[in-house]
Amino acid sequence: MNFKKKYTKMTIMLALVQGVLLGIAAVAIVGFILLKTEKPESAASPNTEVPASGPATSDKGEAGDSEKKEAPAAGAPMTMYAKQHGVFSSKESAASFMSDENLPKAAIVKVDGQFYVWSALGPNEIDADPAGDPGAFRKQVKVSPLACSSGEGELLATILNATEISEIQDLVTSQKQAKGTDKKDAFASNIAAITAFTDDLNIIRMHILSHYAESGECAKLEF
Question: Transmembrane ranges (predicted)?
Answer without folding.
Answer: 12-35
